[in-house]
Amino acid sequence: DTEVTQTPKHLVMGMTNKKSLKCEQHMGHRAMYWYKQKAKKPPELMFVYSYEKLSINESVPSRFSPECPNSSLLNLHLHALQPEDSALYLCASSQEAVFYEQYFGPGTRLTVT
Amino acid sequence: KNEVEQSPQNLTAQEGEFITINCSYSVGISALHWLQQHPGGGIVSLFMLSSGKKKHGRLIATINIQEKHSSLHITASHPRDSAVYICAVKPGAQKLVFGQGTRLTINP
Question: Which of A62, A113, B13, B85 has its CA at 20 to 30 Å from residue A85's CA atom?
Answer without folding.
Answer: B85
